[in-house]
Amino acid sequence: MKALVLSGGKGTRLRPLTFTCAKQLIPVANKPILGYVLDQVAATSIKKVGIITANETGQFVEDYVKDGSSWNLNVCYIPQEPLGLAHAVKTARRFLGQDSFVMCLGDNVTGQGLEAFVKKFKNEHLDALIILKEVDNPSSFGIAQLDEKGNIVRLVEKPKTPMGNLAIIGTYLFSAKVHEAIERIKPSWRGELEITDAIQEMINMGFSVKAEILNSWWLDTGKKDDILSANARILDEYIQRDVKGTVTNSTVDGRVKVEPEAKIVNSTIRGPCVIGKGVLVENSFIGPYTSIGDGSKIYNSNLEYCVVQDCVTVKDIERLEDSLIGKNAKVTRNQRNRTIKLHVGDYSEVEV
């Protein structure tokens, strides 16, 4: 079995950050989202991984993943025009050959690994296993209807009338028969080859298509608030106290990770949070659910529930919360003001 990880797309909902970075590389808890996806692939027996990339951001993905050896994986890169998920599978057909494969979206994070899904797929000799999750707003997702045996009988993309609440989350397992189905479908009204159409075609062709309902959390990190939620969730579940940097006249409470060469001076850090390598926090408060990227400098400021990327400067900000700050940005104060909420792109400067 192989893996196909989708790291293309334009990330329009996260601009301007995605003008200079693939959306899958935006960090949560100071680690790119794509890294968590590859962690889950690496926890299975899969070794060969194809990563679908976009022309605009593919080099950033390659610079991060390299040959995959950091995950003990053998990685190759497959450029694709963004013409749908089924088109991505079609583009990767030479890499996939006749092997079964797991397909994951590189910007989705779940609290459950892939191992149990791979085991079920193999043990039951399935042609497709689609991972679903109950949602409160089914009209925003592709929705699956199941029979009493767990077989998928129907798929509808963003139904206007209620037909269930089991959403397709973006984790799929396929046999090579999916290629036959893709050859039979046509582009949707969006001009894309839809994976939901391919799965429906597999059902129509009589292939064995089942579903598994995710019993953990799932976050689609396509928007600013999604990034902040994913950051909070991962900090809450995975960060343990580990203070390697220098702490001077300061208080570090709870599950806080302070990387080497970081300096905490006359400040309070309250976890869960992570402080990256070479960070300077001086005369400041860093509250729960905040990640500070490598090389950033925080002076005379109060931050809470924020994702601050690498080499950011925040100075004299009375209160900054619910904010996503891109690399090399500067946020400074020139007069008194109330709480500020920001979504700041890479290399920006903001005075408030």
Features:
352 residues; alpha/beta; Spore Coat Polysaccharide Biosynthesis Protein SpsA, Chain A; UDP N-Acetylglucosamine Acyltransferase, domain 1; 2 domains; 10-stranded parallel beta sheet; 7-stranded mixed beta sheet; 8 helices; 30 strands; elongated
The CATH superfamily of the largest domain is known as Spore Coat Polysaccharide Biosynthesis Protein SpsA, Chain A
Q: Helix fraction?
A: 10-25%
Distance between the termini: 53 Å
CATH architecture assignment name of the largest domain: Alpha-Beta Complex
Q: How many domains would you count in the coordinates? A: 2
CATH fold description of the largest domain: Spore Coat Polysaccharide Biosynthesis Protein SpsA, Chain A
Indicate the CATH class of the largest domain.
Alpha Beta
Strand portion: 25-35%
